[in-house]
Q: What sequence folds into this?
């Protein structure tokens, strides 16, 4: 019997030692948690701190609704319509008048509200029959509503009900677009809205060319029009890589400096680039495109409502081309609002933006910190 | 392969079936013996019971020596005195094919023609021959095409196809029957088990517990296993006999082309799938239209309307004929694909007989109208025949639509009843709309996940289609209940509704368009029921 105890005792010793060691590790972790081993996470945390020191905002404080802060007046107007008061909106649109770039932008924002709830717009329409401004908001809102019905998933995951609602609503929007265009014959905005109908209903290229003629005769270098049309010409919608680049390059070449259309080749590249590394982003063409875009941005009106969108793209490609200091300049100018390409397609656009931005901050800091 | 060899193979395969059955029986007995010698009383009894159960279908399959008499089928037997021209044609074609004419002709209600023979002594002696001829087939084919179809059927008898194939068919039928029996037993068992589980589950729920999921997988597995053994043999059997069966079809097609002409044969082959599909559609959409209202079409029209449908939809059918059904034949299908058969026939040299006998095959009958009427008595069930007859197709349509509308329960009916707690009526709905509470009702509709998650305009847009359809139905039902609705019958188009006041016949300002506009206005974001109320018959407005 004693022999048996001896054997059991000898076997118990290593087990006991193991249990004690586990308990010690556990207690140690409990009172002095070791810093996370993950070097990447440390680095990321350091980068985030560095970014914060520069006054850049963490992901949770980034605005994911817009690409840039809205003018205070616009914010006030949007708040007013949410409360049912359409008059400030009507006044502002009237004041903007023939500044097509701003008109289309504000009409979009109002229409986006009206696509959710349109009682205020119905009131506006009831009081001012045939108001071209109400008509253009109406047309845009129906197009936006159609896209909301469709949802953001690819066609494969869109239900039949969604697809039918999408189609039906787009078709009904065409009538409203025609009406809005007839009420203000010089305004390109209704036609810009129609580009999104063209995408959804699959206009043949010939139809799109006709539509484009209507737009370019009214506003030859309109940023939103070009941006929308480029989506149509992309391979994922109704065009191809070749057609998209052709359109983008021609638009950029024909536009005067400061019109921001140098963003188009960058977007065309972004939409058709599936590569994993940065080789494709460092070709001589891409270097030249980024350089042209830098000059374009420098020459643009600093209050141009679309300038931040170009800066977001510039920040991204300057980083991919290892010009991190220049990239950081752009990041500093746009930080706080991230709803722009190249971040917009990600579910976590703020997180994606901040990761890239922090990498840039770190890269700028390191050579500075290292002894020369 | 010569005929003798084919017969020999068929015999061997058939004997294989009996051998398989004997082996299975022996195995079952073996299990019994083994268990019995091992002792253990209750187990022996149980195993013995199971093996006997399994043996029954096997033994029954072996004893069913006779090929089952194909359901004699409902039809009108016609004598030579009744239909001299049809009989003359049949005799002529049988002679041309070099075989014996049938002993009886039966006119049936299907799109089909078949010659059957019940041979005696395992197919060694010929038996009585019957020709089944579908009246709808006569309605749709020209005389030349009918000649081709009949020549094809008789072609099977030349060279003793059918007599030899009696063996093959017997084997096929017998194996199929045994498999069927096993599956049937397994299904019975599953059904019984399901019922038992459902009872048990109901009890659990009654006691306030969660109902157990009903699961019948695995029940009847022994029966299914037995079926699988036979299925495996059946597949072997079919594969061995199929090339023959398909070859025989091609050969019969050639006989038909020789006797009735190449073009008539090719066009008949193209016509039959089209006729078959059209007849299904006709039965579904026209002949049985009044069943819900317990009405039959006028006498003779149950089958007679098919001809009118074919005439009215001639253009549509021409398109169908030109495209051949391209679906590949299943590996165990005894017929080669129609497309392949048509291609082979159309590849034959022209024989200059394109314009023969273009008249309708139905005209061969002495009294087509009388036959169509008599066929109803022979084919339709007694219960159906007791239904009253409508005065005409128009009246049949009106009556059946009125019945349908009065019984209609749209999703909106249910949602409204749920919301108000009252029976759903149109006037109640209009009041709810006027109170601006339509979208509250809409929340009670059956919604998809996306629609349920949406808000505001998007939600309204998602529910609008079902609201539009339901409200329209409710309005039509209101008209219909006051006999103010008329439906326009057409052989070529779906029925269209005609509201009172229909006269101008312009699409844009008729009551149709007014109804659509009024429905649209009632469902708009700012609803307006005034238009709809104005349209409705007076009684509703006062309600």
A:
């Amino acid at each position: 019997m004693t022999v048996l105890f001896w054997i059991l005792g000898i076997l118990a010793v290593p087990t006991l030692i193991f249990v004690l060691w586990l308990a010690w590790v556990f207690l140690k972790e409990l009172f002095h948690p070791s810093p996370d081993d993950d070097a990447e996470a440390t680095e990321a945390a350091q980068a985030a701190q560095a970014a914060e020191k520069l006054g850049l905002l963490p992901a949770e404080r980034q605005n994911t609704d817009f690409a840039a802060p809205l003018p205070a007046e616009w914010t006030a107007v949007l708040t007013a319509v949410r409360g049912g008061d359409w008059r400030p909106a009507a006044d502002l649109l009237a004041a903007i008048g023939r500044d097509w770039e701003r008109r289309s932008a504000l009409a979009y924002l109002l229409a986006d509200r009206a696509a959710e709830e349109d009682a205020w717009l119905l009131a506006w329409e009831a009081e001012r029959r045939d108001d071209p401004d109400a008509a253009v908001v109406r047309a845009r809102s129906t197009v936006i509503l159609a896209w909301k019905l469709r949802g953001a998933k690819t066609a494969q995951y869109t239900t039949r009900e969604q697809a039918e609602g999408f189609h039906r609503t787009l078709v009904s929007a065409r009538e409203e677009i025609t009406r809005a265009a007839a009420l203000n014959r010089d305004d390109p905005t209704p036609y810009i809205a129609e580009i999104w109908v063209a995408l959804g209903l699959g206009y043949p290229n010939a139809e799109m060319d006709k539509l484009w003629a209507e737009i370019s005769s009214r506003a030859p270098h309109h940023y939103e029009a070009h941006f929308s049309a480029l989506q149509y010409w992309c391979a994922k919608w109704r065009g191809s890589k070749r057609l998209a680049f052709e359109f983008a390059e021609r638009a950029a070449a024909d536009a005067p400096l400061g019109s921001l259309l140098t963003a188009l080749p960058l977007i065309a590249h972004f939409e058709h680039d599936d590569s994993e590394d940065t080789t494709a982003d460092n070709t001589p063409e891409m270097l030249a495109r980024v350089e042209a875009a830098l000059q374009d941005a420098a020459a643009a009106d600093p209050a141009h409502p679309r300038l931040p969108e170009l800066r977001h793209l510039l920040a991204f490609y300057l980083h991919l081309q290892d010009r991190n200091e220049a990239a950081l300049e752009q990041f500093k100018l746009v930080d706080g609002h991230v709803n722009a390409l190249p971040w917009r397609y990600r579910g976590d656009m703020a997180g994606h933006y901040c990761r890239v931005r922090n990498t840039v901050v770190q890269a700028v800091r390191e050579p500075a910190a290292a002894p020369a | 392969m010569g005929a003798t060899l084919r017969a020999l193979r068929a015999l061997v395969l058939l004997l294989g079936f009996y051998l398989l059955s004997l082996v299975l029986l022996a195995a079952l007995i073996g299990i019994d013996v083994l268990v019995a010698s091992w002792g253990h009383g209750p187990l022996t009894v149980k195993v013995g019971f199971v093996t006997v159960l399994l043996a029954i279908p096997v033994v029954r399959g072996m004893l069913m020596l006779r090929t089952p008499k194909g359901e004699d089928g409902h039809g009108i037997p016609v004598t030579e005195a009744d239909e001299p021209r049809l009989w003359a044609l049949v005799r002529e074609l049988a002679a041309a094919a070099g075989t014996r004419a049938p002993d009886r002709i039966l006119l049936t209600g299907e799109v089909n023609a078949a010659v059957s023979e019940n041979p005696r002594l395992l197919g060694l002696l010929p038996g009585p021959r019957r020709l089944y001829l579908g009246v709808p087939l006569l309605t749709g084919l020209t005389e030349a095409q009918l000649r081709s179809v009949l020549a094809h059927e008789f072609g099977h008898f030349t060279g003793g196809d059918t007599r030899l194939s009696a063996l093959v068919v017997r084997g096929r039928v017998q194996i199929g029957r045994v498999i069927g029996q096993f599956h049937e037993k397994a299904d019975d068992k599953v059904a019984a088990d399901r019922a038992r589980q459902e009872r048990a589950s109901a009890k659990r729920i009654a006691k306030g517990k969660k109902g157990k999921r009903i699961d019948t997988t695995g029940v009847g597995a022994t029966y299914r296993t037995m079926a699988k053994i036979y299925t495996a043999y059946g597949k072997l059997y079919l594969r061995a006999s199929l090339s023959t069966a398909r070859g025989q079809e091609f050969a019969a097609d050639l006989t038909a082309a020789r006797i009735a002409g190449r073009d008539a044969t090719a066009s008949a082959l193209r016509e039959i799938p089209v006729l078959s599909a059209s007849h299904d559609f006709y039965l579904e959409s026209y002949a049985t239209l009044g069943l819900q209202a317990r009405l039959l079409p006028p006498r003779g029209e149950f089958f007679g309307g098919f001809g009118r449908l074919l005439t009215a939809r001639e253009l549509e059918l021409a398109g169908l004929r030109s495209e051949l059904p391209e679906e590949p034949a299943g590996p165990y299908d005894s017929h080669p694909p129609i497309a392949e058969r048509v291609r082979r026939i159309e590849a034959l040299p022209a024989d200059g007989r394109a314009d023969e006998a273009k008249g309708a095959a139905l005209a061969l009958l002495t009294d087509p109208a009388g036959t169509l009427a008599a066929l109803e008595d022979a084919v339709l069930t007694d219960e159906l025949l007791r239904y009253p007859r409508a005065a005409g197709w128009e009246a049949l349509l009106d009556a059946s639509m009125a019945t349908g509308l009065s019984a209609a329960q749209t999703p909106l009916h249910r949602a409204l009843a749920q919301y108000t707690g009252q029976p759903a009526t149109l006037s109640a709905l209009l009041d709810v709309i006027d109170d601006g509470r339509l979208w509250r009702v809409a929340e009670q509709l059956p919604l998809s996940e996306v629609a349920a998650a949406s808000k505001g305009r998007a939600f309204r847009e998602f529910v609008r289609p079902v609201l539009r359809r339901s409200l329209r139905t409710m309005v039509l039902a209101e008209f219909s209940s006051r006999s103010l609705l008329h439906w326009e019958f057409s052989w070529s188009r779906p029925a269209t509704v005609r509201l009172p006041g229909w006269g101008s016949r312009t699409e844009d300002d008729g009551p149709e368009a007014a109804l659509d506009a009024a429905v649209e206005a009632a469902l708009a974001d700012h609803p307006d029921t005034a238009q709809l109320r104005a349209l409705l018959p007076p009684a509703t407005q006062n309600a």
